[in-house]
User: Fold this.
Amino acid sequence: MEKKGRDEQKEAEDQVVNPWEVTAKDGGKIDYDKLIDKFGCQRLDEALIRRVERLTSRPPHVFLRRGVFFAHRDFIEILDAVERGEKFYLYTGRGPSSESLHLGHLVPFMFTKYLQDAFKVPLVIQLTDDEKCMWKNLSVEESRRLARENAKDIIACGFDITKTFIFSDFDYVGGAFYQNMVKVAKCVTFNKVVGIFGFTPEDHIGKISFPPVQAAPSFPSSFPHLFSGKDDLRCLIPCAIDQDPYFRMTRDVAPRIGFHKPALIESSFFPALQGETGKMSASDPTSAIYVTDSAKEIKNKVNKYAFSGGQDSIENHRKYGANLEVDIPIKYLGFFLEDDAELEHIRKEYAAGRMLTGEVKKHLIDVLTVVVERHRRARAAVTDEMVDAFMAIRPLPNMFD
Amino acid sequence: MGYSKDQLLQQLKELQIDFSCYDHPVVLTVEAQAKYLGNLGGGLSKNLFLKDKKHRFYIVSTLASTTVDLKVLSQRLGLGKGGLRMASEEALLEILQVPLGSVTPFALINDSTRNVSLVLDQGFKAQNLCFFHPLTNDMTISLTARDLDQFLISIGRNPTYVDMELANPTVGKDQPPDLAALVPSGIIVLPDSFAKADTVQCPSEKHAPVENKTVTATAVKQSNHAPGVKVKPQGAGRPSSSNSNVSKFVEEILDKMSTVVLSEVTNESVQQHRELLGPAISDKVRERLRLDLESLAVMFKNTVYTQGLVAGSQTEPLHKCK
Assistant:
């Protein structure tokens, strides 16, 4: 069965991956194979990707093709259900800790939008303003404000309002949602959460009682205005792999309270501009490309700060070629350049030393500028009324169309 | 149109707020104002109209003697260092609807300022009387801070007083910006800046559609200075109506398509594809535009749905016949 989460904090030598900290071993790269092994989830292989393509009658998303979303739990069960003509719903979320979003933040939302369109299913998006209020010591007002601001950028990713419900914990917790929170909480001992999340006796009780809040949206009865009478509906959660502990806990609890285990589809981490070992920080504007960056700023940031795997001189570069393992522009192109053939060509030429860093960076700047501009245009169309509409507790009669 | 001085004073009288009026020649600076009113014992105000990088606007009203450090204020609002600058004269005229040199908290009586945030100096509370322009700068009125609060509350505002000279206000990881709640939730888009924002398109596109937009920007600029011609500002509530406008939607799609088609018809592509140029370009158009058009379309859908939801919530039930 599944490996239970061990206390990662104790293994100081090893890499640390949990919802509040991601550090590689000895300042190196995250070892994803080890992570899959330790967490006990499955690899998303070629066969599954082909199956998704068949079932959805459209090319698989670039993040699937490039292995950005690379691990899963029970995704096969979801695909089996779809083949039987059954439905499911999507659940994802964001902790609104900062006003400015960078491209890494958009990755899970871009993928979730693809899943919504490809499988024609509804989506609930949780804004954990309460979590950020507690962990980042923000005021209630500030965390609620950030939640609304972030909601606008999330909406700009292109979610369909007739199939999407966005909610903030401070607004929505209560009623059927809270009933499920209590059901979950009753099944998880204090020792268990200490083991999974590393809480200590000095942590305040808000933190210790938070996990059920992130678990509850996995159960359809938490949303009576959407899924009333559909207690059997399965849930698929696209998220970054550091969120796995929350959902390991949820999956353990689910059968004990009469629900399907939520399925997960997990992504690797988006690298900082300065390299995989660099830390992306909301307060360091040079560590990432923000959705508010102008074309000029993007060009400047990529040229100045993107870590290059090229050699230090042109002669050496022509001789030895580039190190694709550490080159950030190549990695970023892996995320955002749709054309597989073009990416392959660039990789080949760059590794052979025939293409220079400057050229690769130019390709990246062009691609990122298009992505950011598209987002900016969509974001300009989001009004406060639209946010209210996405967050209104209303039925979604066309959610499976 | 904005409120006039007389309309404001009438409103203050109706609220039974005591105030005194002082006429003086037009003054554009605090120093000039002090020449005429300096002997009345303190309370003169310094009023700044500021904007941040995300098109949000602020009136900062302090005692003339208070030092305002824009860098610190910017940090305390959570805008980073240097996130605040003086708003343009156009913004002053369009949003506050008062002449140059007349920035005043009373400008908030105008509906065009609904997304403008007000920051008031704590120092006002220590004064017997505070002096502000009543929407024009050839007069100053004095009233107590309590009465100012009463006026602000009557127009739906929550007066917030701030210690402007807070010593060492560090804003960092563990200390969130203390004034962040004062940042407005809505942006105000002026015709000029809106047109400018549109011209920052993909750098590779250098064709007719982009040039058209530049022309529009110039035209708008000129009409702002033409006497008697007023361009309607796009307040935060307005964008939704233009985003559900069918002709604009279609024009934008056609503009994008022309740009791509024109950029794909080159000597090379003509020679490469010859008689199959048509299908080749057709494929290119789909490939290059699919995501952009999907994004536009879903925003159109969301905008129209939102309008429907709002209308639905205001719809009165039909009379039922028994």
